[in-house]
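Exercise 7.
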Amino acid sequence: MTAAPGIEALTVGRVGVDLYPEQSGVPLSQVSTFARSLGGTATNVAVGAARLGRRTAVLTKVGPDDFGGYVRDALAGFGVDPRYVGTAPDLLTPVVFCALDPPDDPPLLFYRLPTAPDLTLTAQDVPWDLVAQVPLLWVTGTGVSVEPARQTQLDMLAHRGRPDSAAGRWTVLDLDWRAMFWASPEDARHEYGRLLENVTVAVGNRAEVEVAVGTSDPEQAARRLLECGVQIALVKKGAQGVLVATADGMATVPAQRIKVVCGLGAGDAFGGALIHGLLSGWDPVRCAEYANAAGAIVASRLACADAMPTIDELEAMVSGRARHEEVR
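Solution. The predicted structure, written as tokens, is:
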């Protein structure tokens, strides 16, 4: 498969169709109408970065159904290159129902059985030249939860090698811990360890870093991630902000204060803005400030891809609050 010229960021992993209740605070059994949106972590991250002016593409798969066509059309509409969206002929495009109860951490109901198309990625689906050359490659923990996607993603990282971030080239791991996709946390930790050997940036919340490196303490987890060889570790602390750690030290970027409408997609918006910051050559703290702002904006809205902020919206939010606080 040939590489598309000009792509700045390639994300790899989950895609689907999200269905959001139009009635908040009630169980799914009592919801009468739903709103449809493009979904999936890797997909939303690519959309978030594209909304900020970046040229992005997604490596994933859908089913041969109408929802698969919707995914491709929606990606193109958001400015994301859909040419690396393959088709798994015997599977259906995943659908995810979101219950807005509680709104800050909405439970998800995944329809991805017997397996999701994005977990059937093989070497034949991969644009190897692009993987080697793209300025930023974004992978997820979910992408190594089962075969054949596990070996495919590991082979992609080995093919790329750990790039030189000083030259503006990055490989980012979104830990993306979803218990329902794994046999056990121990299995996930083993696979996370293999991923961390080949990435320059690691991103996760307290629960995700605990699975990855055995502790939910942000500072201790960040140190362990750095010991694995990553150059930037970002540990999300919820209302306490996000910890940014490098070999030069640690700092906490405070959280934005907003009224939460739906927490789903906030982490993906964080990722999209992080991509923009890394590709812009910003220092890690500034990247985290804009990423935090992006997550807050999406949490204050309903939907994921459709809710991704513009650069003007990020500038307005970032300019309205204090700078980071040093961790002692």
